[in-house]
Amino acid sequence: VQLQASGGGLVQPGGSLRLSCAASRSIFSINAMGWYRQAPGKDRELVARITSGGRTNVADSVKGRFTISRDNAKNTLYLQMNSLKPDDTAVYYCNAEYTSATFWGQGTLVTVSS
């Protein structure tokens, strides 16, 4: 499974962005997909994850501000990010858990700054 993340950029605090992750194959049967992020000097961390059944889990740090969704018809995963804060600045990666393997996209940079 190849994943192409897009939608990052520079945004002011309080602003919004929507990240997209396009998959090279149908995501209908993919067990789970997620968004992770890695800030400079920090470990990669889970932001949000969604299963094939639609169950989601979201990191406490972004709960109420970020929403994960998947469109099986478009083979695309989304992350709607609202009320962005400078602490959200990071490279965001999407991943897919399929059979016994995990696949990663190339990352998209989100910078929250005035």
Q: Features of this protein?
A:
seven-stranded mixed beta sheet; mainly beta; four-stranded antiparallel beta sheet
Provide a descriptive summary of the structure in words:
Strand 5 (45-51) and strand 6 (56-58) form a beta hairpin. This protein has strands at residues 3-6, 9-11, 17-23, 32-38, 45-51, 56-58, 66-71, 76-81, 90-98, 101-104, 108-112. The protein starts with a strand and ends with a strand. The strands form two sheets. Strands 2, 4, 5, 6, 9, 10 and 11 form a seven-stranded mixed beta sheet that branches. Strands 1-3-8-7 form a four-stranded antiparallel beta sheet, with no helix packed on it. It is mostly beta strands. The mean pLDDT is 95. Helices cover 0% and strands 54% of the residues. It is built from no helices and eleven strands.
